[in-house]
Design goal:
Length: 440
């Protein structure tokens, strides 16, 4: 059973997201659209910061990974060759009593539903499982027939395989090397829910890391560690993260080994990220289907072969959810979002002590404008200073600057720290360096 306090935590985070503009229900004025969510002004900043942190770490700070940004709708032949048209499905069952549909392999939800009917003295029964393809269909052009059918990509990965030759031909990458991409993926999931945990459109950060077959175990291990470091740097308590070897029969059709990183969400232990060994399945099949040579030629030996692939994959939305869950703290009647500094939507907030004293406002605006050159900065002149602190704590702003009468005399301000609530007096001229040092 889920702990009550844990469920509470989820409710509190959802409510904070709505109240402060992190995440809104999608199409809300029309009553929403089942499990679609829109990121608001603070949510988009947090999400961008997560994506930037990932890109810097895995693309900019390593010489062996380059990025791409591909189209969402690809030639349907891609999905034939990748096996998605045939294999990318979940078993669907329908409850014979209320006709609600579920994924047959989500045992907890199935049992919960059976119990629901049992309590009403109804005997639940299920239809035989049917395979339900998760790809979203659309049509290209004015005719809506089989020939014009296309699909929204269900994963970003295939774009890396399809562009493999382009990347090899235009960069100086030698094995092992990776292609990274961040972007949307679409899945017509049978059951969605738990806020942004499972939605029909979501974002992925993926790397296809091309290797020689003989190296697969070592490189799999390297990525396993990298993924754990990443989770730790999101401010997550690693005790809540569990690696799970995905057994035969449960793995995706292309995978020879998969390790899932599960996280203890308030609604249960569920997949956060995955790491898969895709062998040479994709390049081999795309070569067969397209007729284009997708082999890699070793410059030293002249040998040609299909590289094998290790694929670490991260959900952006699930990353954001765990960041919020881990950061949420209550201290007395204060809510503090202890976000990692790098991820905070605003790094600094600037307040004039009194909003009706022109000299204070002028000085505070000057500081605000100056800091904006280097940081994302909030401005607040409503209510009293205490309320403004509360308000910034709740959205995770690490530092608040107050411009007071002393500031006008000696060019210093108070800087108050989110986590310790301690205040320091700092020279205005030294503020940028002060924050830069802290953010390093
Ligand atoms: P699950 O078992 O939860 O359905 P999956 O194994 O199908 O996930 P992958 O195909 O490995 O997921 O996708 C890679 C990552 O994308 C997942 O680890 C997760 O972080 C994210 N992800 C997958 N499906 C969704 C979804 N419907 N909503 C939000 N994020 C998702």
């Amino acid at each position: 059973m889920k702990e009550k306090s844990q469920n509470n935590l989820m409710d509190k985070v959802i409510s904070l997201c709505k109240r402060r503009g992190f995440i809104f229900p999608g199409s809300e004025i029309y009553g929403g659209l089942a499990n679609s969510w829109d990121y608001g002004p603070l949510g988009v900043e947090l999400k961008n910061n997560i994506k930037q942190m990932w890109w810097e770490r895995f693309v900019h700070q390593r010489g062996d990974i380059v990025g791409i940004d591909a189209a969402l709708i690809m030639n349907p032949k891609v999905w034939e060759a990748s096996g998605h048209l045939k294999e990318f499905s979940d078993p669907l069952v329908e409850c014979k009593v209320c006709h609600e549909r579920f994924r047959a392999d989500q045992k907890d939800i199935i049992v919960e539903h059976e119990e629901f009917h049992e309590k009403r003295k109804e005997s639940a029964g299920w239809t035989e499982p049917k395979q339900f393809n998760l790809m979203f269909k659309t049509f290209i052009g004015p005719l809506q027939d089989e020939k014009s059918t296309a699909y929204f990509r269900p994963e970003t990965a295939q774009a890396m395989f399809v562009n493999f030759k382009n990347v090899v031909d235009t960069t100086r990458q030698n094995l092992p090397f990776g292609i990274a991409q961040i972007g949307k993926a679409f899945r017509n999931e049978i059951t969605t829910g738990n806020f942004i945990f499972r939605t029909k459109e979501f974002e992925q950060m993926e790397i296809e890391y091309f290797i020689e077959e003989k190296d697969w175990q070592n490189i799999f291990e390297m990525w396993r560690k990298e993924m754990l470091f990443w989770i730790k740097d999101l401010g997550v308590n690693l005790k809540k993260v569990h690696e799970r070897e995905v057994p035969d029969g449960e793995r995706a059709h292309y995978s020879k080994r998969t390790v899932d990183f599960d996280y203890e969400f308030p609604f249960g232990k569920e997949e956060l990220y995955g790491l898969a060994y895709r062998t040479d399945f994709d390049l081999r099949n795309h070569e067969k289907a397209s007729g284009v040579n997708l082999k890699y030629k070793d410059a030293k030996t002249g040998k040609e072969f299909w590289p094998h692939v290790i694929e670490p994959t991260w959900g952006v939305d699930r990353s954001l959810l765990i960041v919020l869950l881990e950061a949420y703290h209550e201290e007395g009647d204060r809510v503090v979002l202890k976000l990692p500094l790098r991820l905070a939507p605003y790094k600094v907030a600037v307040f004039p002590l009194l909003a009706n004293k022109d000299k204070l406002v002028e000085k505070a605006k000057e500081i605000y404008k100056d800091l904006q050159k280097n940081f994302s900065v909030a401005w607040d002149d409503r209510g009293n200073i205490g309320k403004r602190y509360y308000s910034q704590d709740e959205i995770g702003t690490p530092w608040c600057i107050t411009v007071d009468f002393e500031s006008l005399e000696n060019d210093t301000v108070t800087v108050r720290d989110r986590d310790t609530a301690k205040q320091e007096r700092i020279k205005v001229a030294g503020l940028t360096t002060y924050f830069e040092d802290k953010l390093k």
